[in-house]
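pipeline stage [seq->struct] | target=CU044_5270 family protein | organism=Streptomyces gancidicus BKS 13-15 | residues=333
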Amino acid sequence: MSLEQHEQSEREQASRVLPPTPYPEPPAGRMDARRDHFLSEIDRQMRFRSPRRAPRSRGRWGLSVGAAMAAGAVVVVLTLNSGSSDAPLNTPPASVASVELLERAALAAATTPQTKARTGQYSYVKTVGHTSVLSETKSGDMQLLRESEVMEQWTSVDGSERTLQRKDGSDSLVPETPSEGSLNAPTYDFLAALPTDPDALLKLIRDDAQKNHGAGSDSTTGLDQEAFVTIGDLLRSGVTPPDTAASLYRAAALIPGVDIVPDVVDAAGRKGIAVARTHEGERTEWIFDESTARLLGERTVLGEDNAWGEAGTIVTSVAITNSGIVDDAGQVP
């Protein structure tokens, strides 16, 4: 299949699973002019790159051109320094449909009114759903157990107070020592301080993943999958500042292997469309409202039989049903 046929196929896929783009269709001939301009810019910059790096850079540029053409965008994004990818050579870049949906989510996030969080306030989030754990029985067999994720959580916006959780009507303080936040335990202020440039943000996340999931570690997750999971965790941790949320969605569009899964249902029973990435037979899905591109929740689905169950088993499914900034722990927006 030629490059033109491949791009046409992806555009047709995007049109089937996504609502019409809010941007007007460019006039006849404008698309070809943009393509020529993009490719000339690529050719010009390639002359200043070393031959060894050119193949990887060209692949990333190809994604940016295809995504921009599909969305009718007028911006050239040349991404060369997002951190090294651990994806196998045959892992495709994020599909056009997934890039378009992530851009819609970024635009929706960026236009959300900025919440002015003050010291002493809390980021609130309410979730429903379940996670799963494997437990060994007395006979030595492995048993899959579900753990409820129906809970409310209040996190200090600046990390100066301990996090409060409410499950089954009981309140408890998370045992961790209060801190300014991290990628694994973010606060609102920590999220607000993250880079808003998608390339810089993805590099920061990959560099952090390298410490625990890179070469020499026992982890089999890999940097790309860990980056995708980390971004998902940050997005559903509570209230994310609009600019940060937009940057996180755009950073996810730079990760190889990201695609679309249509017709999915979150833990609250809401129908949507998912941006997903599969790693070692497990598919991590971020579920969006198809009309508004608002993040509804996340789930993990088995793509093949393994110790966790048969293919199609929903191992984890967590949906966000409410969130906001409140003055006191225990208060609901």
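stage status: PASS
auto-comment: Residues 109-326 form one domain. Residues 54-71 form the longest helix (18 residues).
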